[in-house]
Design brief:
Order of helices and strands: HEHEHEHEHHHH
Largest sheet: 4 strands, antiparallel
Structural class: alpha+beta
Number of strands: 4
Distance between the termini: 15 Å
Length: about 290
């Protein structure tokens, strides 16, 4: 019986390795989806806060312009408020259109403006209409209009809502698949230990004595699996940020730490639960049923 138990133990070692690799790959997939999901909102905020609003000026009085600029800057919705004179407006236009109109026009037809960006929470049609109405109410005599890309704002909010809902559904389904896959992987690994478990029970070992080392092994294997998947995910994120510099704008250390912590909890938690259930199952089975 002892030889049979030792033989079972030796056969179980490769399966632990396969189990660790399998769980690592599944956790990596979960981590990738989690990274996309956690950074989706952040990416949307960065995109929204890159939409420029322009208050075109009727007045040329520097004191009045300064007052308007200070008024907008002190509002809760505004960020990066700048005064753009005619020369600066010309340079911006030439840069955006990759040409210089000085070859065609002598005069500068562009108006002076106060350009600013709204915080993400305010980048929607209703809020921007209120912002426009507020500024025009206070400085309507000095401002001709407040302009922003309304079609872009509407499209961003509509598509973000639809994509966010669809991605949430996919993420939930994937999480269920991940948990089911990890559970099956652990149960298959424990299947090779069924004779060892039964042998220990037959020589008088208590359930607690049998399950404790198995659960501890599950914790260690879960940590190893999570560690491997976290390292791979970190390398992937770093590579993507180097390939796409815009991703660095949404880089959030806190969100990444939350994601890595979640991967550890899922990896260890499911490994322990699945292992414990499998051990209990084989302890309750008769010897003949194990074949």
């Amino acid at each position: 019986m002892a030889k049979e138990g030792a033989s079972s133990l030796k056969r179980s070692k490769p399966n632990y390795i396969y189990s660790i690799i399998g769980v690592s790959l599944v956790l990596l997939i979960m981590g990738i989806m989690g990274w996309i999901f956690l950074n989706f909102e952040r990416a949307g905020q960065v995109f929204k806060e890159d939409i420029k609003l322009q208050a075109f000026l009727r007045t040329a009085n520097k004191d009045t312009i300064g007052q308007i600029q200070q008024y907008i800057a002190h509002q809760p919705y505004a960020k990066d408020v700048q005064y753009v004179n005619k020369e600066s407006a010309k340079q911006i236009w030439n840069k955006d259109n990759n040409e210089d109109w000085a070859k065609i026009l002598d005069a500068n037809p562009l108006p002076e403006s106060i350009d600013f960006f709204a915080k993400a929470a305010y980048v929607n049609r209703d809020s921007l209409n209120k912002i426009s109405a507020d500024i025009m109410k206070v400085y309507g005599n000095q401002i001709t209009e407040l302009k922003y890309p309304s079609d872009l704002v509407n499209n961003v909010n509509d598509k973000a809502s639809k994509f966010g809902l669809a991605f949430l559904v996919v993420a939930v389904i994937l999480c269920l698949i991940v948990m089911f896959s990890i559970d099956n992987t652990i149960r298959l690994a424990m299947f090779s230990n069924r004779f060892l478990i039964k042998t220990m029970q037959m020589v008088g070992a208590t359930r607690g004595f049998i399950t404790k080392p198995m659960d501890l092994k599950a914790v260690i294997n879960g940590l190893i699996s999570a560690g491997i998947s976290i390292v791979l995910l970190f390398i992937m994120i770093t590579w993507l940020e180097n390939q796409v510099p815009q991703l660095k704008l949404i880089h959030d250390v806190t969100l990444n730490l939350i994601l890595f912590g979640g991967m550890i909890v899922v990896g260890v938690g499911i490994s322990v639960i699945s292992t414990h259930r499998s051990v209990r199952k084989y302890l309750k089975m008769k010897l003949d049923d194990l074949y």
